[in-house]
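Below is how a single chain appears once it has passed through the pipeline. First comes the sequence as given, then the structure the pipeline wrote out for it. We keep one example in the README because the format questions we get most often are answered faster by looking than by reading.
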Amino acid sequence: MTLTRVLLSLPVERLDLRDQVHTILRTEIIRGRLEAGERLHVGRLADRLGVSPTPVKEALSRLTAEGLVKLGARGGTFVTQPTPASIDEIFELRELLEQFAAERAMAVISDHDLNDLTTLAESLKSRVNPDGSLAYEGFSSDDIAFHNVLVGLAGNERLVRMYQDLHAYTIVARSYYQFRTKAPGNDVDSRIRVYHEHMAIVAALRANDAAALRAAITEHLTAVRRFSHRAAALFATQALSGDS
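Resulting structure:
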């Protein structure tokens, strides 16, 4: 993919410009519109957004600190590409943080919160088409919302920010795989299984069962980790073949 595509239809307002540019670029990476391994040209991004290069440079610096962007060995700035080692590191931390947050959430969660999580989980299922293909952006948004709500219920803002950065990295891998593998039907069972994994988390919360909650989170994240490794393998194969 190239950067000649329109990044977002929404105009960039002048208020809090640096934050808005950062949010736009972060969203485009997470949604897969800026792919893993893609080079990011400051001038082209600035022209597309109608801003000067300065807020773009600042946004890329923040994205580098978040792990979504990296500097190339020979110069240039690129969307971070998944590797087996980085995926394992991320998921080890995700599991620890999400289990800790979910157990804290269990002590304060309300019926309204549980209903919200149930609605988001059910929405994941509705995003799977009969042929196994996905309404991907909706699926990704629902998944992000589910985990953000769950972790947010812990009531720890620093924890939420740490978790969101980790989650964003795994979404980059998932987005890359999704947009580079177009054959529908191959993953219909695993995509429906994602719904059941989320519902198992909700059921454990509803039952106030900490052991079941930890097990449900581990099962879900183990499955997502396997999927992310497939993305890393695909990226490595296409990098070797020169496909981009």
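Residues 1-11 have pLDDT under 50 and may be disordered.

See the next section for the split statistics.
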